[in-house]
Amino acid sequence: MDQPTIDEKSRLLLNVLQDEIPLVDQPFAALGAKIGLSEADVLARLKELKASGVVRQISAIFDTRSLGYHSSLVACKSPPGKTDEVAAIISAHPGVSHNYARRHEFDIWFTIAVPPASNLEAHTEKLRELSGALSMRLLPTLRLFKIGMKLDMTAGKAREMGIEDDAPSYNEESRSGEKQPLDAVDIACVEALQDDMELRTDFFAPAAQRVGITTAQLFERCRSFQRDGRLRRMAGIMRHRQAGFAANAMGVWNVPPERVDELGAFFARHPAVTHCYLRPRYPDWPYNVFTMVHSKDVSSCDQLLSDLSHQSGITQYGALYSYKEYKKVRLRYFTGEIEGWEKQNGLSAVSGQ
Description:
By secondary structure, this protein is α+β, with helices and mostly antiparallel strands. 36% of the residues lie in helices and 23% in strands. The strands form two sheets. The chain has a nine-stranded antiparallel sheet with strand order 5-2-4-3-11-8-10-9-6. Helix 1 (8-19) crosses helix 2. The radius of gyration is 20 Å and the shape is globular. The protein starts with 7 loop residues before the first helix and ends in a 9-residue tail after the last helix. Residues 158-163 have low confidence and may be disordered.
């Protein structure tokens, strides 16, 4: 798909859309007020941006672990010449939300999540068996430093114009704290808000009607989810290539244990870094800190990582570029699809790790 032409107002709109959709009855009027657009103009522009493929989805962005699911990034090594075949079997798992081919000995990288009663290692081992992969390495998040997939569509102009990032703060403390169990209404709210939502003036009304509560009650549930880390934000999710960010690099860093806190915070502060995690090492995988950067081209990503290396003093690092996207979706919670795959493939639901 060719990159569409996006004017300045639509770029501003995309910036605020990625920050947060406010929990009010007419959220697009509120977004428009921030950047000088009418509600009707906002809706018309968003419909065009979705039709052109720039906006992938507008919905709630939930935190997998905070909802009780077990999840991990997985590095997979496929037999020579079998990358596509192995990736197709992996993508068929309903708990796999992202699946990419990257230029490395570990040539397939995917994220997988399973419900609270399921065993993540058993699912991953079954995928290795079904796909014929040579090996898989589970790389779960040991510590989250940053997660905030926001592409600056204005090259800094939004901030210069006084349009600040209003995305709610999201940190490891809220993600890891004690939580009350979800009740039936909570789960119904998750189900109603997790899929792509219709663009209309009363944006939240259909979700509230589906749950059987008022929009005010829905907003209170959402605010509670935000306080306990279950909901990151309501926002738009973009297709980075269609938005003009043709290159994305997974920067992997061999950081000494005594510098993990310092450098995790340092990497997370950089505006071009959208994700930053601490993950486990393996004998054949020395890297423990992972960063994601997006830019217009590979040379810009390379320069960003080189600058980070120079500033941090970490010289042992790698840049893994994706060259094929096999799957990229939002994980759907509480649907029973993963349990169905589990049963179909002879796995019993046992306590996950």
